[in-house]
Amino acid sequence: MSSKRAPGRSLKEWMDLVIECRQSGLTDAAWCNEHGISSSCFYNAVTRLRKKDCQIPDPVPCTLTIHIRLKSKQTDY
User: Fold this and answer.
1) pTM for this entry
2) pLDDT digit string (tens) for 60-72?
3) What does the buried/exposed string (b/e) look like for 36-75 if buried means 16 or more CB atoms within 10 Å of the residue's CB?
4) Does residue 59 form part of some domain?
5) Which domain holds residue 38?
6) Which candidate among 2, 48, 57, 70 keeps its CA 20 to 30 Å from the CA of 39?
7) What is the count of structural domains for the chain?
């Protein structure tokens, strides 16, 4: 029984994915999770891109604010 790996992505494909990730407003880990990509594969690709002198975009700062309203527990005595 042979275990074959799926064909890898090209550096161009990884660059497109990194740009999409970094413009999404999500953390790298959250974006990878949503897209079924191992975060270790993602960061390995980022490392390979940097070694090729590619300009890796910084993540877009998250502008999402979450408001949490706490309900007080009322008890009747």
Assistant:
1) 0.70
2) 776 655 656 666 6
3) ebeeeebeebbeebeeeeeeeeeeeeeeeeeeeeeeeeee
4) no
5) 11-51
6) 2
7) 1
